[in-house]
Write a structure and sequence with these properties.
heterotrimer; A mainly alpha (539); B mainly alpha (294); C alpha+beta (261); B: mainly alpha; Four Helix Bundle (Hemerythrin (Met), subunit A); 72% helix; C: 261 residues; alpha+beta; Helix Hairpins; Immunoglobulin-like; five-stranded mixed sheet; 5 helices; 38% helix; 22% strand; elongated; binds heme-A; binds dinuclear copper ion; binds copper (II) ion
Chain lengths: 539, 294, 261
């Protein structure tokens, strides 16, 4: 045994020496065995883009079916499968991995670290995802089809899922495992790997919002795992968690789910706030207004997110006092979120603005996320929510926060940092076209949904009464337009290496350490801790 | 957590580990494990063997990954910063486990304070009781108005559970003594108390097995005994699983102590396992109070 | 941006001229509480519009005035405690103004005491069962025949040719006007939700649990709704129709039912 270790040690030492030549491993091994935050970040981003298209294709099926009244293309069961899978894939496959990818790429560069703190675990976090999505996607081909109970998986309906059921549960477990490990890595990196003179309050906003997000993830993903575990045992081992006859309660699942689910939506928006907070100062040529209060606001949002979950449950028959509590707590979130919006506006105020693609996406983010936030506030008004609940008004609300919210922020971040990754400027004209078509169509898709919801169209239905036809057609046209616009995005990405070479700074004096390393960022950066200087935006 | 990096020397080079195939092996293992369990639950016998294969791959991965890390650690590759990263990583991992248990404790509180009383007509559920469960009076423990799983007896807090509490609490003391012995360089004391710790741990698991058999054989208390049976067995069961894992880790650490892997100032693995053990212990205290006692 | 605004306006303009189908807003409904709900909805909406106009105006001004191409020089300020205190306090005040009337409405909604009659609604996949507690009437209510045929995939029937496509049932709920009607909801299988927007009622029907809601309206008429909680493949096909009739007509309906049994 001792000898074994000795031998291995020497091997490792050799390997370690090898690592000093600054080149990545060759071929597929580079990706499979990677410990480089840049490679792993790239893999996350690519996976997320693929999943965005898969989830988007499902959305296209949904929108095609809903384009006109009557059933044209799919059966109701399959429609429900599409709704469920669309949401699961978009949330866990597109948005979350995209932010983890950005975190992987940028956090070490932004805090002056050579890599993530736990690089091998980082690799594992990523490589669990294809397994999870493989298992989840395989259910499409199973007897009984994919899960069709909605992404919220409420029992008893979800217990009617066919063979897909255990696959759904276990893929959720794996997604949770991956997220938890990813979050641990980010926390440890941020706390332990910062350049020595970067105090916590000097950290860039993107790092801050991700740190807070990581805490949220560690706190709620295990709870989600617990909830689906209870579903599993209720289904296969005769427990009574969600069975009233046995003293449980189907509604209990909803409490546990939303204890996870509400923080989850902030998990999808806080990093977006971070991205936008990086971009707006750069293109306003002015420091971020109220950096510290942004930090406190984000912390406040995170804290409040734990005590508002039952605003998703105003129709389940909760006692009045609980309803009142959850309503007030929910409304409070408007305050710290407002602080963020106002601070961005104040950052732009008396700036010297230019409108490159990342800035355009960030501006649309501020506009359209605010609209999504407003409809959120309307939903928080319990008596009104009783009318909105489970209608397209809710669908409109969360797509405004998620698509021109989270997704636009991801795109903004991608355009902003892409030259840093590739060393070349992407095609700015096409980028702008992508922006304008996306913005136009995203509104055409999701704005009419407000009207549909108010007029009484329930969500999760494959067919509807003829009075809802016109707005549905508009939404479907918009959705296809939005989908096609995204092909342009891929084109810009694929051709990005053809653009002109960029300097280390890329933009006009952007703040932050990531702009002090060459573009493209070399395989190894910051092998020794960097010193911060005022010129990098640290005051 | 500390927020500054003061004891980290700015001239020191950062340490980055080499690439490794273990993560991917782990993913392959997870794939087979999950695929196996799922197909098995769906009624295919072959699933069981796929599951075992996956499990074996994961055990292989864990052994391989850990020996690589142990090798590197002994080879002196890790600086203080790496040590700190490991510590913080372990801390947050344990926190995530705490939250996992919180979900089940939450279910227990919800059942006791909400759903069971509601089924008995409390709060705004007068009609729930009147129309659906007439005559049901809420009590705890309860297997619900449907008397799911049939008549049963609840687990008494005295007897084995009390013994188990004493066992686990003393094991927390023994591991602390072992830790102090390690720092003080008293090897004999260290090995003895560490051994005592995992023996106590395994004894706990054994007694829990006895308790479960008792429950099934004599009390008619089963996983299927309504919400009481569900929360009882899921909470104690997951806890027992964690004790088992913890005790195995303690055993591994014990062998590493015999090999002389730890020094007074460098023994992260030992501490990580100790933390884990304390966590398992604290959860048990919660269990003992809320599941057995109250 | 501009294009979208234009589009938004044109939609609004269209909505005014085109007939019924471009419903843009929540209906006022026919009960006191539905009107209160509508008012709350409008109140929050206008607050949001006001705040939105304020925020977006400032933003658009900076977009146009403080652009580099116009030679704008960037200022260097990066915080102002006064400003931040102001824009934290004002929203809090606005929220309090919203919360108070809302809480009052909620209290009234929960008060289902002393009803004139009670109906037990039991949800099934995918139909409703109604049982009148006071008179021994009970029956199932499911999607009307006309829609059942037209809803099939690939059918030749044009949904537009079906009256109240997907919103009609075989046996509607019949209730008298002017009476306080208590509904008790439960389910036989999975969770459903009974929703009639004109009555401002949406309540989950949960297996093993009974939920309450109530309404009272003077307005005679037919009010339609749908199941509002995903309940499986035919979730979209379990509508609700409530007919509010004069008390005499209601009595006649009850009598005819008794005769039928
Ligand atoms: C990124 C995702 C995201 C974000 C950020 C939010 C943000 C908010 N959400 Fe949303 N929400 C979802 C994603 C998100 N939501 C999803 C996915 C669902 C549905 C899940 C499902 O059922 O499938 C949902 C559903 C949902 C519901 C349940 C609806 C129902 O099913 O009946 C409610 C109810 O309260 C709600 C409220 C809010 C509120 C109050 C906010 C607030 O955080 C918004 C705060 C922002 C603002 C208010 C705008 C800016 C503020 C100012 C300019 C300051 C001044 C303003 C005022 C004083 C008004 N959301
Ligand atoms: C991050 C999350 C996220 C994102 C990005 C999206 C993106 C989109 N969503 Fe999604 N959605 C959810 C999260 C998300 N959604 C959730 C949580 C639900 C609730 C589920 C539930 O009820 O359980 C939901 C439900 C939902 C519904 C309601 C379904 C129902 O109630 O039955 C609809 C309906 O229109 C919809 C539409 C869309 C559209 C058109 C997009 C578009 O933005 C997608 C655009 C992307 C593409 C189109 C892909 C790119 C292009 C191609 C694939 C090329 C080919 C394209 C063409 C040939 C046109 N979504
Ligand atoms: Cu019944 Cu939906
Ligand atoms: Cu929420």
């Amino acid at each position: 045994m001792t000898r074994g270790i000795k031998k291995m040690t020497t091997e490792v030492m050799d390997a370690h020496d090898m690592h000093d030549d600054h080149s990545p491993a060759k071929g597929i091994k580079r990706w499979l065995f990677s410990t480089s935050h840049k490679d792993i970040g790239t893999m996350y981003l690519v996976l997320s883009l693929i999943m965005f298209f898969v989830g988007g294709a499902m959305a296209m099926i949904i929108r095609s079916e809903l384009a006109i009244p009557g059933l044209q293309f799919v059966h109701p069961e399959f429609f429900n499968q599409m709704t469920t899978m669309h949401a699961l894939i978009m949330v866990f496959g597109a948005v979350m991995p995209a932010f983890v990818g950005l975190a992987n790429w940028m956090i070490p560069l932004m805090i002056g670290a050579p890599d993530m703190a736990l690089p091998r675990m980082n690799n594992w976090s990523f490589w669990i995802l294809p397994v999870a999505f493989g298992l989840l996607a395989s259910t499409l081909f199973m007897p009984g089809g994919a899960p069709a109970g909605g992404w919220t998986m409420y029992p008893p309906l979800v217990l009617q899922t066919g063979d897909a059921f255990p696959f759904l549960i276990f893929s959720v477990h794996l997604l949770g495992l991956s997220s938890i490990m990813g979050a641990i890595n980010i926390i440890v990196t941020v706390i332990n790997m910062r350049a020595p003179d970067m105090s916590l309050l000097k950290m860039p906003m993107f790092v801050w919002t991700w740190l807070i997000t990581a805490y949220l993830l560690i706190a709620v993903m295990p709870v989600f795992a617990g909830a689906v575990t209870m579903l599993l045992t209720d289904q296969f081992f005769g427990t009574s968690f969600f069975l009233a006859a046995g003293g449980g309660d189907p509604v209990m699942f909803q409490h546990i789910f939303w204890f996870f689910g509400h923080p989850e939506v902030y998990i999808m928006i806080l990093p977006a706030f971070g991205v936008v907070s990086e971009i707006i100062p750069t293109f306003s040529r002015k420091p971020l207004f109220g950096h510290d209060s942004m930090v406190y606001a984000a912390s406040c949002i995170a804290f409040l997110s734990f005590i508002v979950w039952a605003h998703h449950m105003f129709t389940v028959g909760m006692p009045l006092t609980s309803q009142l509590f959850f309503m007030f707590a929910t409304m409070l979130i408007a305050v710290p979120t407002g602080v963020k919006i106002f601070n961005w506006v104040a950052t732009m105020w008396r700036g010297s603005m230019t409108f490159e693609t990342p800035m355009l996406f960030s501006l649309a983010f501020v506009f359209l996320f605010t609209i999504g936030g407003f409809s959120g506030l309307m939903l928080a008004i319990a008596p009104a929510d009783i009318q909105y609940q489970d209608t397209y008004f809710v669908v409109a609300h969360f797509h405004y926060t998620l698509v021109p919210g989270s997704v636009f922020a991801i795109m903004a971040g991608t355009y902003y940092w892409l030259p840093k990754w590739t060393g070349h400027m992407y095609n700015e004209t096409l980028g702008k076209v992508h922006f304008w078509t996306s913005t136009f169509f995203v509104n055409l898709t999701f704005f009419p949904m407000h009207f549909l919801g108010l007029a009484g169209m329930p969500r999760r239905i494959p067919d509807y009464s003829t009075q809802f036809a016109d707005f549905n057609t508009m939404a479907s046209v918009g959705a296809i337009g939005f989908g096609v616009s995204q092909l342009l995005f891929v084109w810009v990405l694929l051709t990005s290496k053809k653009g002109t070479k960029v300097t280390a700074e890329v933009w006009d004096k952007p703040p932050g350490l990531e702009w002090t390393v060459p573009s493209p960022a070399p395989y190894h950066t910051f092998e020794t801790p960097p010193k911060l200087s005022d010129a990098d935006g640290f005051h | 957590m500390t927020t500054t990096t003061e004891n980290h020397n700015a001239d020191e080079r950062y340490y980055i580990p080499q690439g490794s195939h273990w993560p991917v092996v782990g993913s392959v293992g997870l794939f087979f494990l999950m695929l196996g369990v799922s197909t098995w639950l769906n009624g295919a016998d072959s699933g069981f063997y796929i599951m075992l294969t996956g499990f074996a791959i994961i055990v292989f991965m864990l052994t391989g990954w850990f020996s690589t890390v142990i090798g590197e650690s002994i080879g002196g590759l890790y600086n203080d910063q790496v040590d700190k990263s490991f510590r913080q990583g372990m801390f947050w991992f344990i926190f995530s486990e705490v939250m996992f248990f919180a979900a089940f404790f939450g279910a227990l509180f919800y059942a006791r304070n909400m759903s069971v009383p509601w089924l008995g007509g409390a709060s705004n559920n007068f009609f729930t009781n009147l129309l659906l469960w007439e005559g049901y009076e809420s009590t705890w423990p309860s297997n619900g108005p449907g008397n799911v799983g049939g008549e049963y007896e609840a687990m008494a807090p005295l007897g084995l559970p009390l013994v188990n509490t004493v066992l686990l609490l003393s094991s927390s003391i023994t591991i602390t003594i072992a830790h102090h012995a390690l720092i003080a360089g008293k090897r004999a004391q260290l090995t003895a108390f560490l051994a005592a710790t995992f023996i106590l741990g395994f004894t706990f698991v054994y007694f829990q097995g006895v308790e479960y058999m008792e429950a099934y054989a004599h009390l008619n208390l089963k996983l299927t005994s309504g919400i009481y049976g569900s929360t009882f067995f899921m909470l104690t069961g997951f806890h027992g699983m964690h004790v088992t894992i913890g005790a195995i880790m303690l055993t591994v650490i014990w062998f590493r102590v015999l090999k002389g892997h730890f020094s007074a100032d460098k023994h992260f693995a030992f501490e990580a396992v100790a933390w884990y053990w304390h966590f398992v212990d604290v959860v048990w205290v919660g269990l003992y109070v809320f599941v057995y006692w109250m | 941006m501009i294009r979208n605004l234009l589009l938004g306006f044109s939609v609004l303009a269209l909505a005014d001229t085109a007939e019924a189908d471009w419903a843009l807003n929540m209906p006022k409904g026919v009960t006191e509480l539905s009107l209160e709900t509508y008012n709350l909805h409008m109140m929050v909406f206008w607050w949001c519009v006001a705040i939105g106009v304020a925020v977006f105006t400032v933003m658009i001004i900076s977009l146009f005035r403080h652009r580099k191409s116009k030679g704008a020089q960037a200022a260097t300020f990066s915080h102002s405690t006064t400003a931040e205190v102001i824009w934290t306090t004002i929203p809090v005040v606005i929220l309090v103004l919203m919360a108070v009337p809302t809480a009052e409405t909620m209290v009234r909604m929960e008060d289902s005491r002393n009803p004139d009659m009670t109906i037990v609604v039991t949800a099934h996949q995918w139909k409703w069962h109604y049982k009148y507690q006071d008179s021994n009437i009970e029956y199932y209510s499911s999607l009307a025949r006309s829609s059942v045929e037209a809803r099939r995939k690939g059918t030749d029937i044009d949904p537009y040719s079906v009256e109240n496509y997907l919103l009609d049932v075989d046996n509607p709920v019949v209730v008298p006007s002017g009476a306080k009607i208590r509904l008790l909801f439960t389910s036989n299988d999975v969770i459903h939700a009974w929703w009639v927007k004109d009555l401002s009622i949406k309540k989950d029907a949960i297996p093993g649990i009974v939920n309450e809601a109530w309404f009272k309206t003077e307005q005679v008429g037919t009010y339609r709704g749908q199941c509002a909680e995903l309940c499986g493949k035919d979730h979209g096909y379990m509508p609700i129709v409530v007919e509010v009739v004069e008390p005499e007509a209601y009595q006649a309906w009850v009598n005819s039912h008794d005769a039928g049994h």
